[in-house]
Amino acid sequence: MLIQPVDYRDPDAARKFTESLHNTGFGVLTNHPLSQNLLNTIYQEWYEFFQTDAKNKYTFTEKMDGYFSPKISETAKGYAKRDLKEFYHVYPWGQYPSEVSKAALEYYEHGNKLATELLQWVEDYTPADIKAKYSMPLSDMITDSDLTLLRVLHYPPLTGDEEPDAVRAAAHGDINLLTVLPAATQAGLQVLGKDNTWHDVPCDFGMLIVNIGDMLDEASQGYYPSTIHRVLNPTGEEAKKSRISLPLFLHPRPDVVLSERHTSGSYLQERLRELGVKK
Prior knowledge:
The protein is an alpha+beta fold. 27% of the residues lie in helices and 19% in strands.
């Protein structure tokens, strides 16, 4: 399976991008409008934030905003071991650490704007018989939604004392419509192809990785597949380094009907319970 990067400036970018999403569950964009300098600022200052005890002042609330320590990190569906990571949930309305700048909030705004455009691309290139099943245009599903989530992820260096079989991120699918992910500070992201083989996702700095979540899979009746992916544990010298990742999870409003089986709200609550982050 080959995930071919698409130049955002290409006049035919929308078709090529959505074709990649349909065929692989992933799309990779180059020359996109998100600022690499802004991303570099976020990577550096949040890396420093995660090295301090200040993060513990912002433990997540019942609204799921704030800091999640490694001890309460996610457990992927079907796995017994928690992922080797800590993370912070950033919402414009949520608690936000004073120890960092507003760069992440600025990125949230720019990323959400681009993601809305990408959803429109998906809408435009959805076959008519599939599109007819959408309860509303895809871009309308996120209008006025306060659930779109920017997660700042820190995968700490490996010490050798990790539990057997514990990994940075076990194989999983995302919950939302689309996930927009700038290339992280370290490689390791892989996708499970239709050939049932794991494939590396291109992750050169400057690339933007976009993958389909379960909600778009549900709404499109599988035309856009929510592809299983994982983050491998590094080896050698790379194992001694942190990895910072910045996924933006595009979420509909809770009342949005995805299918006869689910609204966005019912689907989200079911998945959060499966992940072990909500009872």
